[in-house]
Each structure stands twice: as C-alpha cells, then as structure tokens.
Amino acid sequence: MSTRRKLVAGNWKMNGSLVANEALVAGLVAGLGEVACDVMVCPPFPYLAQLRSLLAATPIGLGAQTLSEHPVGAFTGEVEAGMLRELGCRYVLVGHSERRSLFGETDAAVAAKFVAAQGAGLVPVLCVGETLAEREAGLTEQVVSRQLQAVLDLAGFAAFTSALVAYEPVWAIGTGRTASPQQAQAVHAHIRGLLAAGNEAVAAGVSILYGGSVKPQNALELFGQEDIDGGLIGGASLVADDFLAICRAAN
Ligand code: 13P
C-alpha cells in the first residue's frame, strides 16, 4: 500500500444555488466525523465566496473548476489565478474533459493554465483521459501521454510535487459506465510511470485521482487499487450522503 494520503474531490460542474449549497455543506459537515481522507469541493465561480465562508471552520478544501491562463487585464469573462487564491481556493481543476471538448481547450492552453495556477500558489488538478473512440482504437495510453507531456514540457517534472492528476475516461463521465478498477489502475500506473521516467520521487508522491461515474457502490474497489489515490466526483458529489459514503471508502 502506498503512503500517499487519499483525497476525494467534488466537482459540482454547473450546479448549485445559494440555498442548495448551504444545505449540501451542512450535510457534509454533519458526516465528516467518519471521514479520514482529505476532502475538497469545486463549486461554480459565483459561489466561491459563499463556500469560502461556509467552509471556513471545516477541514474541507475549496477549489475552482477552471481558470484563465492570462494575467489580469482585458480578458472579458475570464477569471485569473490570483483572484481564485484571494477567494480562498487552494485547488483548481485544469483541462477537465468538458473544458477540452466543449470549450476548445487545447493541450497547450491546459499547460498554460497549469503554470498560471502554480504561479498564484494554487494546486492544479490536471485532468486527462481518452474518449470512447480513442479507447476502442487502442490509443488510451497515447492520448494520456500526450496530454501529460504538454504540461511536462512547459512546467517540468518537479512541478508535480505541488499538483495532482485526475484520470477521467471521457466515456465514463456522467454515463453511469465506470472504468473497471483494473482498467483505471492500468492507466494510473501508466501515468505514474511517465512521471517516474523523469523523477521517481515526484512520481511516488503525486496523487492520481480517478473520476467517471464514481458512486458509493464502486468507490471502495477503485480506491483499493495501488495507484488510485482518491476520486474526482461529479454527480454523486451533489448528494451529501453519497459523497460522504465515497469519502469513507477512501478511509
Ligand atoms: P461523474 O462522477 O458525474 O461521472 O463526473 C465525473 C467528473 O467529470 C468529475 O470531474
């Protein structure tokens, strides 16, 4: 067993309201006593200030779902890394597959966001993963390698001492179709191997989360794999009891 501390992260995607967020956090806090892993949530931008205050007296960390790769300036609609830091964020997702596929984020843009996040003292969670077509064409490792390499080229191996990776097969996101623990473990081991080729200590220490239809029923087996250090949870993170059950599976 690895000594890496497990982390379970909730990606709320474009969900929430002032009232719903308050109820969800109250539910989470009520059940945190039985949770031993690190926990964080990523609400939509408009709720960061609310979550900062709701989470202030709790061990739950705060993250954002994306950020701009640009410094402050004339970038209408964008959010700069330092602003997220000021609002209490410790983490930020970069390169989520929905950002890549729906909003055209390239590997290069994702790498630039990763660097911008670290520049402001945020811990980036680099999301990688293949589509169904890519998996069926036998390209899974190639795709994940390419996505990771773009960041390594810009940020270097040592950058992963203060970053996380999330493997999220696109075909498993929101589909109810999860990767088997063996499928996920194989890709996680591949990712760790890529990092080990440049820096073994960094590879051994980096947390690699799995995301894609993680539920209370499948979390235990997934989190039991050697190279799976926790989860990035979408749908199930919006239901306090489900999210807590997933967190307990990481204990
Ligand atoms: P689901 O858990 O809803 O499949 O979403 C996974 C995800 O994309 C988390 O970032």
Biggest β-sheet strands, sense, barrel: 8 strands, parallel, barrel
Shape: globular
CATH superfamily: Aldolase class I
Subunit arrangement of the protein: single chain
CATH topology (fold) name: TIM Barrel
Give the count of structural domains.
1
Specify the CATH class.
Answer: Alpha Beta
- Total of helices: 11
Task: State the helical fraction.
Answer: 40-55%
Mean pLDDT comes to 97
User: How far do the termini sit from each other?
Assistant: 13 Å
Q: What is the rounded Rg?
A: 17 Å
CATH architecture: Alpha-Beta Barrel
Stretches where pLDDT is under 50 for at least 5 consecutive residues are: none
Strand order within the widest sheet? 1-2-3-4-5-6-7-8
Description:
The protein has helices spanning 18-31, 48-55, 81-86, 97-102, 107-119, 132-136, 140-155, 181-198, 200-205, 216-223, 240-249; strands spanning 7-11, 38-42, 61-64, 91-94, 123-128, 164-167, 208-211, 230-233. The chain is α/β, with parallel strands linked by helices and 251 residues long. It has a single domain (7-233), classed as TIM Barrel. The structure holds 1,3-dihydroxyacetonephosphate (13P). Residues 11, 96, 168, 173-174, 211-214, 232-236 line the site of 1,3-dihydroxyacetonephosphate (13P).
